[in-house]
Design brief:
Length: about 240
């Protein structure tokens, strides 16, 4: 219900969002499998650039551009003059030049990375790689939610950030490790490199958010998912292409 636009029975809304957060990597793995399926299937009909574009479009539709919205808000807001001004900008639904530029460049790089990997890898390896990358990108939100305070008085991410326990975080990270282990079949160094860049990217985002707004928000968590995903894809391209 939170990470995708897949129709879910209303009764699922009674589940504690902090407890459910442990399964973020499972949702990410499912998204990665779908994106890989669209990329590989489209690649049988069209050139890899078109196939990669359709795969990214599928991800946007499947997730409702939720994390992209967070990335855009952070791009505009973190450049504000002080903490309150930054949080105010991030809450504003209008898109500024920083947000627009960030979204365009981010999507271009994602399409370019996927098209390069689609050209370099057989279908099975593409599937395993994207399952690992997407699982890790969703799991990357958990350490930020657990270790940093919520920066607002109210907000959509408050329930997860304030109630997420160490047990849920560790469960989610264990699932990330399982998903990344599948990438070992693609290339021995890929899983290690992707894990390393995911950790460094998450750490950098956490430090920046703590310094600029004193904690995290739902937008910061979404931006973390998107940026971690992109950096991991670029790392894969560096090794495999």
């Amino acid at each position: 219900m939170l990470l995708t636009r897949v129709p879910i029975p209303a009764s699922a809304g009674s589940v504690d969002p902090a407890r459910a957060a442990a399964l973020y990597p499972v949702v990410g793995a499912a998204i990665g499998a779908i994106v890989a399926g669209v990329a590989v299937g489209s690649g049988e009909l069209w050139p890899v650039l078109i196939a990669a574009t359709l795969a990214v479009a599928t991800e946007v539709a499947l997730t409702g551009a939720l994390h992209l919205d967070g990335l855009a808000d952070c791009a505009d807001g973190l450049a504000g003059r002080d903490r309150e001004h930054r949080l105010q900008i991030m809450k504003d639904h209008s898109i500024g030049v920083y947000a627009a530029s960030t979204l365009v460049l981010h999507l271009l790089l994602k399409v370019a990375a996927l098209s390069t990997l689609l050209h370099a890898l057989p279908p099975e390896e593409m599937l395993l790689l994207l399952i690992g990358v997407y699982a890790a990108s969703r799991g990357a939100m958990l350490p930020l939610a657990r270790l940093l305070p919520y920066a607002r008085v109210e907000g959509t991410g408050r329930g997860v950030v304030q109630r997420l326990g160490t047990r849920q975080m560790m469960t989610g990270l264990a699932l990330v490790i399982v998903a990344l282990a599948a990438a070992v079949r693609v290339h021995p160094w890929v899983a290690l490199l992707m894990a390393l860049v995911a950790v460094l990217t998450t750490l950098a985002i956490g430090l920046l958010a703590h310094r600029r707004i004193g904690g995290v928000t739902g937008d910061v968590l979404g931006a973390c998912a998107e940026l971690t995903l992109l950096i991991m894809l670029l790392a894969g391209v560096a090794v495999l292409a």
